[in-house]
Amino acid sequence: MSWSSGKDSAWTLHEVLATGELEVVGLLTTLNAQVDRVAMHGVRGELLRGQARAVGLPLVEIGLPWPCANADYEQRLGEALTRLRLERGVTHVIFGDLFLEDIRAYRERQVSELGLEPVFPLFGRDTRALALAMIDSGLQACLSCVDSEQLDPSLSGRAFDRALLDDLPGGADPCGENGEFHTLVTAGPMFEGRLRVRRGKRHTDGRFVYTDFLPR
User: Fold this and answer.
1) Longest dimension (CA), the chain
2) Is residue 55 part of a domain?
3) Is the sign of the CA dihedral 128, 129, 131, 136 positive or negative?
4) Which run of H or of E encompasses 140?
5) CATH for 76
6) Which of 26, 93, 212, 216 suits a disulfide with 200, CB 3.0-4.6 Å?
7) What are phi and psi of 67, to 5 degrees?
8) In a domain, 1, yes or no
C-alpha cells in the first residue's frame, strides 16, 4: 500500500481491508532522508511510524536525498518494490489517487515494468462525496501543507472537517487532489486507537506553507 500519511491513502486502506479482496502486507512511504519527513506532506517520521503501529502493518521506508531528481526517486522506489516482490511475494501495489489521469498512467508504467499490478480503488469517485464519507466515518486529519497559490495560507494546520470544506474557495478540490493541500491522519476506522499530536510552528518553503505536528 502506497502510504503518504494522509487521508486518501488511509481511506483507500480502509476500503481495501473492508472488501478483503487483497491481503495488505505493508505500507510503503518515501521520506526526505535529510530531515526524516514524509515527502511533500512534511510529516515527521516518528508520526509516520506511529501511524503504522496504529494500523498494525509493517512500514517500508524509502529514504530520498534532498533535493531529489526524479531518476533517483524512480531508482530507489524500483529497488524497494523489486525486493518486496522477490522476498515477500508482493503482487500488487495499491494507490490512493482520485482523478489525475497523468499520475495514474505514470504509476501504472512504473509498477508494471517491475512485474506488479497497480490498483486504484478510489479513482473516479466524486471527491466531495468522498470527503464527506471520510469525515462522517470518524476519520480525523489536519492540513500539514497548503499551496499558498491555491489556498489561503491560514488554512495550514486546520482540521479536515465539514467547516474546512465550506471554507475552501470555489474550484478547489474537496480532497485537495490538485495539490491544494496535504494532510496528516490521526484517527479513523483503519486505526486501532488515535495518534495523539500537538500543533507546532508554521513555516513557509516557497509557495508551500507547512504546519509542524509533534507527538503529544
Assistant:
1) 47
2) yes
3) positive
4) strand 140-147
5) 3.40.50.620
6) 212
7) -70, 160
8) no
Asked, for residue 199, whether it belongs to a domain, the answer is: yes
- Please give the tally of structural domains in the chain: 1
Region of residue 193 (left: phi > 0; alpha: psi -120 to 50; beta: else): left
CA 141 from chain centre, in angstroms, equals: 11
Cell of residue 128, nine digits: 466531495
Tens-level pLDDT at each residue, the chain (216 residues): 999 999 999 999 999 999 999 999 999 999 999 999 998 899 999 999 999 999 999 999 999 998 899 999 999 999 999 999 999 999 999 999 999 999 999 999 999 999 999 999 999 999 999 999 999 999 999 999 999 999 999 999 999 999 999 999 999 999 999 999 999 999 999 999 999 999 999 999 999 999 999 999
> All 3 cell numbers of residue 19?
472488501
Residue with the three cell numbers 503482487? 91
Q: Which amino acid is at 130?
A: L
Determine the structural domain holding residue 59 and report its residue range.
7-215
Classify residue 2: in a domain, yes or no.
Answer: no
- Helix, strand, or coil (residue 83): helix
